[in-house]
Amino acid sequence: MSKRSVLISGVGPVSGLGLGLDDTWARLTAGETAVAPVRAFDAGAMGATLAAEVSDTFKIRDFVPKTYRKATKVMARDIELAVAAADLAARDAGLSTCANAAPEDASYASDRIGCHIGAGLIAADLDELTDALSASTHPDGSFDIHRWGREGMNALTPLWLLKYLPNMLACHVTIVHGAHGPSNTITCGEASGGLSIGESLRVIQRGAADLCFCGGASSNVNPMAFLRQVMTGRLYGGTDPEAIRPFDESAAGGVTGEGGGIVALEEEAAFRARGGDPANVYAQVAGFGASQTVHRETRNRTPDPAGRGIVSACRAALREAGLEPDAVDVVVPFGLGHPDWDGPEAAALRTLLGDRLASVPVVATKALAGNLGAGSGGFDLAVAAQILKSQTLPAITHRPTPLDGLGATAAAKIETVLVCATGTGGQNTAMVLRRV
Question: What's the pLDDT score for residue 363?
């Protein structure tokens, strides 16, 4: 039996570069960075002071139906970003769901809509915890776990925990859009978004759904989450936003951000049956692969220097697509901007593409949008899809002295794009997009 063809019909990137594709693409092609000093709190004593934050004009109430606005009170920032990204993807795809239409007018029956979203470790708001913690201490100020259970927790609102459960990103998206089909949450660091898209792909391929919302979202721009990122040792400690340089000899660390991307995947025949315009399709998801890094020296905290796990995921995706590595025209990599991560990824691309790598553009979005954590995979897939649809490339900036073989800035043709991700802990994903 032939495999069902899966298309990207809508994209919803959200980041410091903008809300939605238009603003995001305009700034990417202009080479404008969203990296700037942290606004949300004073990061001066944390060892890093830069981040890529979503605009202060972002309001979640603009992205949910009026009847759902009360529910936004139990949305942490990560949840808000995912809900907004899904709304943008649905609008971009021209979908009618219960968010904007009566059930009888929806593009798909609810049980034919799935949702798979990658999430990170959501940090609790410190202001909410303050009262609870102050009620949980001894007179000398030391913390008492027993008082926390008896008295401290009573200072939290009854629905407090619902703001911080990782599965709540997908829960709110499924409720807003009436998605009653297969649903899941994946929490595997920066690989989460790619793994979630891979799961949606498999769900549609096996006939369990016709439409899936997938990708990821995350916010590390709050004191607790930001400090965790600093402690990984991967962040750039200086003050120059132009110094975030993936795949450059002078790379000195990455920068954290907030945002992500949700994309709408649709089975091709179902897309046509609902009256979708083929001219609006971004790309076909032709192949997906995943693997695990094995680097005992760092307990998989970084990829092995040869990038063997990354190569395995890429080859698996190409095999499913029925393509050889020579077919890859553009790569959208993980591209963190730290030597311990860029070196192995560059080695993997050399192994995969050989001498051709010198003529294949490698578009590293984190130079401008920052590391979006669990949202990285969805954001990068949206960028890759637009590369195929527009037949243009974003600006490749912040690479004055590129690593060997990674200096190409133009493509002879753009028919196939390879998207890669590597998460903290060693999970790798790869997707092959093909021009429709």
Answer: 98
Mean pLDDT (the chain, rounded): 96
The CATH 3.40.47.10 domain(s) of the chain lie at: 6-123+164-434
On whether the 6-123+164-434 domain is CATH 3.40.640.10, my answer is no
Task: Find the Cα–Cα–Cα–Cα dihedral 297, 302, 304, 307, rounded to 10°.
Answer: 180
Alpha helices in 274-375 (DSSP H): 308-321, 339-353, 366-369
Provide the whole-model pTM.
0.96
- pLDDT tens figures, 301-360: 899 999 999 999 999 999 999 999 999 999 999 999 999 999 999 999 999 999 999 999
* Non-local CB neighbours of 303 within 8 Å, separated by 6+ positions: 293, 295, 309, 310, 341, 344, 345, 348, 422, 426, 428
In sequence order, which residues have a C-beta less than 8 Å from that of residue 304 and are 6 or more positions away?
A: 293, 294, 295, 344
Yes or no: say if 193 and 379 are a contact pair by the CB < 8 Å rule: yes
